[in-house]
Structures are given as structure tokens and as C-alpha cells.
Amino acid sequence: MSADFSRPLPRGYVAGNRLALLESGVEYFPALIAAIDAALHEVHLETYIFADDPTGRRVAAALARAALRGVAVRVLVDGFGASEFAAGLGASLAAGRVEVMIYRPEAGQFGIRRHRLRRLHRKLVVVDGRLAFVGGINVVDDFDDGKSAAPRFDYAVQVEGPLAASIHSSVRHVWRLVRWARLGRRPPPPGALPAAAPVAGTTLAALAIRDNLRHRRDIEHAYLQAIHAAQREIIIANAYFLPGRTFRKALLAAARRGVAVRLLLQGPTDHVLLHYATQSLYDRMLRAGVRVFEYQPAELHAKVAVIDGDWATVGSSNIDPFSLLMSREANVVVRDAVFAAELQASLQAAFDGAAREIRVADQRRRSWLARFAIAAAYSLVRMLIGVTRYAGKQYSD
User: Out of 44, 121, 168, 275, which one is annotated catalytic?
Assistant: First the structure.
């Protein structure tokens, strides 16, 4: 039996799309570079990280080639995540006719004041208003940690069809806001939008964004709506998993009413504090029947989910306070059994061959020092959130 999604769907749901799931940079970057090389009119690229490494230089070269043949190329990167971009690859691109801007260029002053935590965490690319990419993959080598033979575990979606117009509108809007802030005056309106993207397939999908104005909770609400309606299965793979109380209660309630809930989280990590804070949730999740797995071969950077085999999401938003309460994020939310099955099969392969299940017995064997570190990490993260005054009671127990 399918889940009952009779409640109102998220804003922006449109039919007629064709979506291609791209797993890791191994599939994503060739598709991205091919799309840029085929661009005729315009390329918009937003990313949190744009590294000066072999992958970053390949993408930059494609952008430069497009600009040289007369394509309008616009690149927007985050001032913290891509703190070295402006003086490196960004300067080279700007010299080659690419428009480059930095979102909140405050890397040298980064702290816990809340306006500095409002980062551009989206990973969006739109080519000619007709082809778009949405996901969690930064412009950086998949093997940049130098420790693993496997690529970083992450996903993106290539979008063709009417949804590409919604994504295009979103990137143009943010570009204009940043340009306004940078120049101190209202920029001229953008050039005419291309004709509406034609129907390309049969998939129903929406763009769910998070900002600090009208869309503060859209991504979280999309998750919660699907979790509340779930009848059979919830699979979430997320790099930084530290949900607030409402989200935690929804997952626990689903498990207690018999829904099979599985979480695929980081094993090797690049953020130890958040990793330990996440482990503070394991006991309660396991006792409620939630199964928790940690991905082992490489860093897990995915932000995806599949619910009841016909709802799926792929995007940039973690399930933690920094994504759900502070940063600009973007996810594609999909209602399509074929797409959901493809994503679920990919995740199942990770569960079967690359993940370690955490069990109640493992928790009991933890040393007092490990338990202290986990509790301290959670308390410290809550304190940092409290200082920003974003979360209120969401992160209380």
C-alpha cells in the first residue's frame, strides 16, 4: 500500500520532468562539464566549496570555455566554504569574462554570531534555463581526504523539464540579491528568461528551498509531511544528522507504529564535534526500533531519503541546525516510484556492503570516556545553537 500523501504538496510541484540520479562526483562531474560545454546562452553555478584541485580546475576550465564563446557565465560561491576561491580560481575566471561573486565574504571573521552562520550551502547549476543540477556535491575532488580508495558518498540529480524553470528562477533571484548587497544599489532586472522548458518526462517533482525569509521551514516540512504519512519504510542517508525535537519525535513515532526506519550516517567524518553529538541520539533511536548504520569506506556526504517507495529527496540540506535553521539550502523532492526505486537500490547496496550497523550492545560497551565525550559534544552544540538564538526549544530533550 502506498503512503497517503493527500495533504497539500510542497509549493512548486510540477509534472513533466525527466530526472537522472548521479552518484558521487564520478558520475556528476562528467555530466556537469558536458552540460557546460553544450551551453548556448547562460550558465549559473552556485556552490559552497569550489576547490583549487584537479576537479575544480576542470570545472573552471569548462566555465571559461563557455564564457569565451559568448555564454553568460555566473558563479556564486560561499565566502566561508570557498574562502580561497576569490584570490585563486575566481580571479582567473573573472579575468576570462566570467561573472564571479562571493556570498558573505567574511571568512576571516567567521564566528558564532548568527548572521555569519547564514551560509550559501546550496549546490545548483542551471544551463540555458532548461537543464539543471541539484544535490549535495561540492566542486571538489571525491578523494580529497587522501585516506580512502572509495569516492565520497554523495548524490546529485540532473533535471530536465518544467522544474528547471523553478530552479533557474531561484538561482537568478539569489544572484540578484547578492549583487544588490555588493553594489549597494538595486541591480538592473535580469535579461529575458528563455522560453519555458518543455515537457521532458513524466516525473512529478518540486524544488524545496530554505532561506531566512519566506521559506525558513520548507525543507523540514517536506520531510515531516512524508514521515507522518509513512506506512512501510523510511530510509534517510544524511551526513550531519542532529534533528530538532519535532523531527526526532516524528521518526520515533513512525518506528513505534511499525514503520521500518533506517538511518545511514557518517562513519569516517570531517566534523568530529557533530559526529559525537549525533551519537548522543543513538540510544533513544535504537530503543524505539530505529536501525542506525554508519558508512565505512569513505566520507558520507549524502543528503537523501526514500519513503514508502514513491517519495524521495536529493539535495544539499543536512538534518542538523546549521542546515535547517540557518543556511540557504535546496532539495529536489520527487513523487515517482521509478526514481525512488533507483535511489533506494543505491542506498541498499551501501547498507549491504559498506555500512556497519550500530546495535544496543555496542552502546552498552562504550567506555565512560566515550560516553562523556558524546554528552559533552551534544551539550556544546546545543550551547552554540543557543548563542545564535535560532533553535529555542527545538533542541531540548
Answer: 121
